[in-house]
Every structure is written in C-alpha cells, then in structure tokens.
C-alpha cells in the first residue's frame, strides 16, 4: 500500500508517518523543505524515540521524499495511484496544497482510478472538509461529480505532543508516548483505510472538540501565561502552582461546556484533564512556549480553542468565563519575532488598540460582552 503524506515535520514524521509505516504503507513524504526531503531520499529511514525513561525506539523504513517546489509532477503522479493521502502541514497551508491534490485527482480520474481517502491531520475542526472545499475550487463540474463519488475527505483528530527537535540526525524525532488518531468513518469512500492504531468513529465532532478544547486550550493557556512570565518551556511553566491552578480553572470552564454538549461522564472528563496536565509536565520533553503559542491570530479566531468554547460558555451558562477571558487577553501579548502572526497582531494592537484588534481577530461583534471583558483583562495584565 502507498500513502502520500504532505508535511514531513514534527507530527508528520513523529506520528502519522510512524503509524502509516506500522500499518504497512510505503510512505511518500511531500514537503517544500529541501534539506528534509533530500535526507529522506538519501537515508530512506529514521527513528522515532519515545520521551520516557527507557527512550523506546521505533525505526521507520520504506519512505520516499518528494520536493513539491521542484518536482510537483511527481506528487501528482503518486496521488494518481495512492491508497491514502494525509496532511500535517498547518491549517493555513491547506489552500496552498489544494491545486496539487486537484491535479493528482484529475490524473487519477484519467486512469480510471478508484476510491481514495484524503485525511487532514491538523489541529482544527473540519480540516479535511476545508481541504475538500479548496480542492474542489480547482475541479470542473464533471471532475467534481466523479470526486463526490470516489474521493472521501474524512475529518480527523490527532493528538500527540511533538516538540521542535534538536537531535543529532535531522530526521529523528522525539515524541511523547501518548497518541490518539480518531477518524470520521461516516465520510470514508470505499474500504476503510487499514490503520490498526487509529480509531474510526461516527461522532468525530465530540472527539475533536474534546481534544481541541482540552489539550489545546490547556496547552495555549500554559504557553500564554508562561510567555508573560518569560518562562521558556511548557513543563517549566506548568510546574508553577499558580499556572497549574489557572489551567485547571480554564479546563473546568471548557469541561462544563463539553459535558453539557456531549454528555461526557464528569468523572471521566476530570481524569482526562489530569492526564493532560501530566503530559504537559513530562520531564523528558523540552517544548518551547513559543512553539505552543505560535500563530496567535489562528488561536484567537472564532472557531479555535479559546473563542469557540468561551462563546459556547456564555450561550449555555449566561456568564463570562473569567479564566478563558484572561487567557485570550494574555494571547494578545504573545510576541516572537520569528512568528509572523504575532508580529501582525502586535502591529494591529499598536494601530487600533487592543479592543478593536480583538474584535477583528476573533470575529466577534463590538457589543459582545466577551469583547469588553477581554479588553479590560488586557489592560490589567499589560
Ligand atoms: N507538533 C504537535 O505536537 C502536533 C500535534 C497534533 C497536531 N499537530 C498539527 O499538525 C500540523 C503540523 O504541525 P507540526 O508541529 O508538525 O509543524 P511542523 O512545522 O513541524 O511541520 C509542518 C511541515 O509542513 C511543511 N510544509 C509547509 N508548507 C508546505 C507545503 N506547501 N507543502 C508541503 N509541505 C509544507 C513544512 O516544511 C514542515 O516540514 C499542524 O496543523 C499542527 O497543529 C501538531
Ligand atoms: O499545533 P498548534 O499550533 O495548533 O498548537 C500547538 C500545540 O498545542 C499542539 O501542537 C499540541 O502539541 C498538539 O495538538 C498535541 O496533540
């Protein structure tokens, strides 16, 4: 079996590539990073190490690299005959790979190609659905009709903390032991992909919201509070009792929303939260606050991990979630010269003030109570 995976970065190599290899796929990584692609083709293998006491090791073999900047035709050719396509490139990049995937589908159709599933493994709600929308912009009506019948875009939720890497060998990756890959089986076309370690579910929305509004909301909380105090890593930050308490406050707010919406068992959800705090504290992982806080414009957008649960909290409980408000205000203060979105956010705040900037970034209306609450919290923290 052959899988084409877009994005040979942290999660691409450390999670999706590993699981696909273990599921007996030959994995073709498509990336724009020349060094990484050359290394994949030269070495043909890499190691994944678990961040545990034993530093357990897995070896990934049977891999190939395609530089989509230099050789897009190769990616098109491989998609035409692939058994699976996956992505882990970042939500904002999906629109840029869509033309290439569309060309791959056209070539597949010309060869009377059969069913194919394309799974976006990004931290967002409805990632594959969004990718489908972008891909369909590059197909004509006849191609769209064919693609509706043969090409599935099942959404998915992926969970594994993979920090930025500093290994001796460029391709090796250190990852946390925990992992979860959940795929919406209702949108699969043809046979279910053979990935024994993935879970196929009918109610993906509950899984993705539970993950995004707990793991990622908690992670963002830790990163934005740590950034204000000039702490460097997630484990260093969460070790401070006041931060841990704030994370627990925020996760009890998102937890209230999730339990109300999806009727999760309260005690089970509490255990899920505690396990996540343990994951953030993993002493074998050095996860930079700047990585976890990256792209604050995306993280402060309407459907992401902060604004979405805060809006739902207000709607369900007619109260302002004080913890989430403080985190949204703290996110407005996140800055790293290497993070373009944080540079833009800073400029926006300088030009228009914090309240107007938050309105524009979050998409909330000026009279929304959350807006004045975040603006007031920002003033206090600043
Ligand atoms: N790292 C984690 O802990 C983690 C966990 C779960 C989900 N995710 C999600 O996975 C996605 C990737 O995150 P990451 O941490 O692996 O980032 P990363 O920066 O390590 O990897 C992204 C890769 O995509 C490549 N890329 C960029 N533009 C491309 C293009 N046009 N075509 C092909 N490749 C391109 C980059 O060169 C890079 O190798 C994000 O959506 C992230 O939210 C990350
Ligand atoms: O990848 P982002 O920028 O959406 O979020 C940063 C981290 O919270 C994220 O990468 C986590 O490590 C991951 O989602 C854990 O499964």
UniProtKB/TrEMBL annotation:
Family to which the UniProt record says this protein belongs: Belongs to the mannitol dehydrogenase family.
Domain Mannitol dehydrogenase N-terminal: 1-196
Name of the gene encoding the protein in the UniProt record: mtlD
Assigned EC number: 1.1.1.17
Residue stretches making up the Mannitol dehydrogenase C-terminal domain: 203-381
Gene Ontology MF: a single term: mannitol-1-phosphate 5-dehydrogenase activity
The entry's keywords: NAD, Oxidoreductase
Reaction equations catalysed: D-mannitol 1-phosphate + NAD(+) = beta-D-fructose 6-phosphate + NADH + H(+)
Species: Niallia taxi
Protein name from the UniProt record: Mannitol-1-phosphate 5-dehydrogenase
Classification via InterPro entries: 6-PGluconate_DH-like_C_sf, 6PGD_dom2, Mannitol_1_phos_5_DH, Mannitol_DH, Mannitol_DH_C, Mannitol_DH_CS, Mannitol_DH_N, NAD(P)-bd_dom_sf
Gene Ontology biological process terms in this record: mannitol catabolic process
Coiled coil region boundaries: none
List of residues binding NAD(+): 3-14
Gene Ontology CC terms, in alphabetical order: cytosol
């Amino acid at each position: 079996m052959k899988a084409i995976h877009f994005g040979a970065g942290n999660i691409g190599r450390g999670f999706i590539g590993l699981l696909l290899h273990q599921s007996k796929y030959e994995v073709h990584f498509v990336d724009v990073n020349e060094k990484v692609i050359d290394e994949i083709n030269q070495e043909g293998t890499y190691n994944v190490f678990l961040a545990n006491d034993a530093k357990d090791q897995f070896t990934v073999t049977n891999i190939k690299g395609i530089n989509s900047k230099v050789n897009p035709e190769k990616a098109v050719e491989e998609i035409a005959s692939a058994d699976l396509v996956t992505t882990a490139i970042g939500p904002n990049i999906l629109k840029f790979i869509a033309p290439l995937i569309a060309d791959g589908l056209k070539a597949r159709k010309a060869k009377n190609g059969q069913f194919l599933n394309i799974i976006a493994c990004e931290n967002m709600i409805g990632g594959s659905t969004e990718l489908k929308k972008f891909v369909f912009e590059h197909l004509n009506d006849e191609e769209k009709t064919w693609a509706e019948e043969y090409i599935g875009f099942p959404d998915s939720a992926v969970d594994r903390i993979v920090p930025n890497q500093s290994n001796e060998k460029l391709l090796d990756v250190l990852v946390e032991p925990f992992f979860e890959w959940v795929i919406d089986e209702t949108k699969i076309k043809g046979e279910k992909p053979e990935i024994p370690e993935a879970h196929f579910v009918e109610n993906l929305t509950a899984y993705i919201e539970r993950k995004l509004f707990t793991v990622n909301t908690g992670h963002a909380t830790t990163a934005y509070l740590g950034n204000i105090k000039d702490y460097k890593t997630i484990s260093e930050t969460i070790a401070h009792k006041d931060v841990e308490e704030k994370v627990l406050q925020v996760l009890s707010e998102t937890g209230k929303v999730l339990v109300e919406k999806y009727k999760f068992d309260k005690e089970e959800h509490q255990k899920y939260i505690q396990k996540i705090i343990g994951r953030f504290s993993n002493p074998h992982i050095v996860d930079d606050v700047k990585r976890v806080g990256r792209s604050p414009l995306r993280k402060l957008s309407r459907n992401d991990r902060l604004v979405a649960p805060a809006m739902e909290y207000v709607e369900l409980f007619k109260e302002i979630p004080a913890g989430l408000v403080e985190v949204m205000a703290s996110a407005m203060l996140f800055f790293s010269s290497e993070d373009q979105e944080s540079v833009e956010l800073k400029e926006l705040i300088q030009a228009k003030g914090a309240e107007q900037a938050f309105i524009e970034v979050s998409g909330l209306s000026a009279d929304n109570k959350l807006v004045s609450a975040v603006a007031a919290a920002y003033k206090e923290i600043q």
